[in-house]
Specification:
222 residues; Rossmann fold; 6-stranded parallel beta sheet; 7 helices; 6 strands; globular
């Protein structure tokens, strides 16, 4: 199985980044083919523009979707963009590892989606949802929250975390055909003792042992 771990981190010493290292080590030790992309605020430009392409067909104005369609046909994605698209296309399981930001993924990670989930290669025409290019492949959000679980329960202050994340589940992941597994949320790890943090990581690694047997989550349709 080909594993792609897509990771955003604020600091290399954070729980979030240490967990990413544990995940990659587990996959490698288990004999999987593992690739990763690590994003941070200072090593990735999340803005989509003409630089996504080696040539643009539009002279008067820039239309990203029009250029993506042309680049998919003419192989004119910038090499850096092409390399990430190939990672996505080649994976059987996509693991997202990031901290929760204002009920969603960090802006840099959303910029990654905007730049690399390209029309013509990742989705397009009838190739969406059940007919998406990624049908039969799996994905999972592994998210670090700064708040305790009680805030994200149904009826809690912020509401059901899994419903909060539905725009990612439905609008990004199911949209391109992925089977979306149930989220794994790490609640307030920075408030925990080191041994408690290790147990949180151990529990998730234990889950990853059986990830190929999990059934997809039920995702709400708008």
């Amino acid at each position: 199985m080909n594993i792609f771990v897509l990771h955003y981190y604020d600091d290399v010493n954070s729980f979030n980044h240490r967990l990413f290292l544990r995940e990659c080590d587990f996959f490698e030790q288990s004999g999987y083919n593992v690739i990763s992309t690590q994003l941070s605020h200072d090593n990735f430009n999340p803005v989509s523009d003409r630089n996504n392409f080696t040539a643009c067909s539009g002279k008067d104005f820039f239309s990203q979707k029009k250029e993506e369609r042309a680049a998919s046909k003419n192989n004119t994605f910038h090499p850096d963009i092409e390399a990430e698209i190939v990672k996505l296309e080649s994976c059987d399981f996509l693991l997202w590892q990031f901290p929760l930001r204002h009920f969603s993924m960090p802006a840099v990670l959303k910029g990654y989606v905007d730049k690399h989930f390209a029309l013509g290669r990742i989705y397009g025409g009838i190739n969406i949802y059940e007919n998406g290019f990624f049908r039969g492949k799996r994905t999972l959000l592994s998210i670090v929250s700064e708040y305790d679980e009680e805030y994200y329960r149904p009826g809690g202050l912020h509401g059901n975390i899994h419903e909060i994340l539905n725009p990612i589940h439905r609008g990004i992941l199911q949209y391109v055909g992925f089977d979306v597994l149930g989220d794994h949320i790490f609640y307030a790890p920075d408030e925990k003792m080191p041994d408690e943090q290790e147990k949180m990581m151990d529990d998730f690694i234990r889950r990853l042992h059986y990830i190929s047997a999990e059934s997809p989550a039920v995702i709400t349709r708008y």
